[in-house]
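Kindly inspect this one:
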Amino acid sequence: MIDIERREFTFLRDSPAKVDIVVGDGRLSLEKELQSAGPRRYDVLGIDAFSGDSIPMHLVTREAMALYVRHLAPDGVIVFQATNRYIDLLPVVKRLAAEQGMEAVLVSDWPESQEGVGYWMSATDQVLVTRDAKLLQHPRILEASERIPERFDLPTFTDARHNLFRILK
């Protein structure tokens, strides 16, 4: 993937930001980073591993969220790519965010048309998780986002206990 990115795309190469590519399981890599160098204080942390049939549940547990928050800047945002045909991750992420004193909102995107290029595009769901009320009040975020309904019957997922059957669509 890194070779393809370097050969076919220029986004990272053209970015003025300091970019580090870390190969490996995201959670395990963040844990190693915490042990070796301490918290990174990311402005944006993207969690994107949920669109397939196999959900890496260790990325949406209480312990995982605590790790993400430790690495996040105070006004940073965690973006969960929550698009999935079979699993409803929205209430899981909302619950995890609430436990950390954070807000979670859904931002969905749909192709404008199923004709032409639009035929190849799919709808997506992103959950923005942050403590930054100013970010969530930005007019463009307010326009694009919606609240995630509470699931009071759903327990918080942990490393030791989670149940995919509870969040099947």
Q: What stands out?
A: The chain is about 30% helix and 20% strand.
